[in-house]
Structure formats: C-alpha cells, structure tokens
Design goal:
- There is one protein chain.
- This protein has 260 residues and is an alpha/beta fold.
- The protein has a single domain, classed as Rossmann fold, CATH 3.40.50.
- It is built from eight helices and ten strands.
- It has a seven-stranded parallel beta sheet. Strands 4-8-7 form a three-stranded antiparallel beta sheet.
- It starts with a strand and ends with a helix.
C-alpha cells in the first residue's frame, strides 16, 4: 500500500487526477470505477481542468460503486444524478459507457449479478476511485461486510445515513438500503486509489492503513490489494503513526522510479 500525504484537499484531488490522467493517456479506453460523496469532488474538478487543457476522456468507460434503493434516477441525490452532474458532464464522458446499479430494479439480486457481469464484460476495472466513510466503509460496505463480498444489497448503518443527511432535505429522506460493489469486487480492480480529506476521516485512515485487516474497518481490505494508493491531506493523516516514513518513502522512491 502506497500512502501519499499532501497539504490539503485541492492537492489531494490534483494528485489523484494526475494518476487517472496518466492511465487514460496510456489507455484511452480505460475502465474507471467512479465514486460519489464529498471525497472525490476535488479529483473530478482537477480532471475537468485537465479536460479543458486537452485530456480526452470520451472513450473511457465508468462503473459507479453504488446506488440507493428505491430512489428515482432523476432525484438530485440519486447516484445516477450525482455521477451525471459531477463526472459525466464535466469530464465529457460518453453516457452510454457509464454504468450505475439500478436501485429501482424489480429483482435487486438479479441486478447485482448483472452488474458484476457487466464489469467483467468490460474487461474489469483498471482504476477504482474511492472515498471513505468515518466508520471505515468504502463503497457502501459497512462494518461487518465480508472481505470477499460481491455486488449486493446492503442496509446502511445509522451513522452513514446521518452523515449523508446533509445531501437531503431531512434525515428521514435518506434511503435505508443500497446496492454496492462488494469488497471482493473492489479488490478485483487493477488499481485502487482512495482519497480522503479532513480530521473527520483521520481515525478511519489510521485504522485502514496501520490497523489489522478487519471487517470492523472495511477499507482495511485495501492492505491486500496489489496496487492500492491512499492519498490524504494533513488533517486526514493526523492520526497516522508512521507518517514520517510515508513521506520519506515518496521522496526517495523517485530516485529509482523517476516516473512515480
């Protein structure tokens, strides 16, 4: 696991965007895993600026991590709408290449199986962008999630619903259920790139980076990923015990790997 500590949210987004841009430059038809929430917003903004400067993302395919169950696709806080608003339009993605689980499907289990099949048919995810919840969830894999789980229906934790209430008119409007890629699905991505900012994420980052691999902190499964990068600002890194080593590693790796 690579840990990169930067000054603030803008720098975290810029670094993540640079990694994605490098991938797309090498593989214009790359498959990206896209995330919602506040964590990836700076990444999308930085990618949009790169698009304005000439980065072409029109051949990229994208798979969203999750979606609420029972919420209209045109609801402003459905992830269909959020991905359209924050990623598809600003980045110039082809809407026909962008996939979001259907939380309105008549058979939710079949929809989850179909979503896994669509990811496989696309050749798998080249780079999965991730945020993290204060309780350590990635995607909507709440604490106690199986480390080998696949796309499935999950019940949101009360703390997650409380955190997400800021996007709705009231806490009662936040759906109780969701469809989410599983931790095993996320581990299948060829690269994982998690971005976190702010003091509220500091404990989760410390637990998933330096704690044991545990269903209590689902994001800790990234310790098992062969190419996982964690990009955090100073506030989110504030509880890391080995932060000096992570800075030392980034500084000195370029001596033998100039392109990193």
């Amino acid at each position: 696991m690579e840990v990169v500590i930067v000054d603030g949210p803008a720098e975290a987004g810029a670094l993540a965007a640079a990694r994605i841009a490098e991938l797309v430059a090498a593989k214009p038809s790359a498959v990206l895993g896209v995330a919602t929430g506040s964590s990836p917003l700076e990444t999308y903004r930085s990618l949009a600026a790169r698009r304005d400067a000439g980065l072409d993302l029109s051949r990229v395919s994208a798979f969203a991590l999750d979606e609420y169950v029972g919420i209209r696709h045109d609801h402003p806080e459905s992830y269909h709408a959020v991905i359209e608003r924050e990623a598809v339009r600003p980045l110039g993605l082809d809407p026909s290449r962008v996939h979001v689980p259907d939380g309105l499907a008549a058979d939710l289990d079949a929809e989850c199986e179909d979503y896994e099949a669509r990811i496989a048919a696309a050749g798998g995810v080249d780079l999965q962008l991730l945020g993290i919840g204060a309780n350590g969830h990635i995607g909507f894999n709440e604490p106690s999630s199986s480390l080998s789980s696949r796309t499935r229906v999950k019940t949101l934790a009360p703390a997650t619903r409380e955190d997400n209430a800021r996007f709705f008119d009231s806490a009662d409007e936040v759906p109780v259920h969701c469809l989410t890629q599983g931790l095993g699905t996320i581990l299948d991505a060829r690269r994982a790139l998690l971005v976190a900012q702010g003091e509220s994420k500091a404990r989760a980052i410390a637990e998933i980076v330096e704690g044991p691999v545990s269903a209590r902190w689902p994001g800790s499964v990234l310790q098992l990923h062969r190419r996982a990068t964690i990009v955090v600002d100073e506030a989110a890194a504030s509880q890391l015990e080995l932060s000096d080593y992570y800075r030392h590693t980034v500084e000195h790796r370029r001596i033998v790997q100039p392109g990193v």
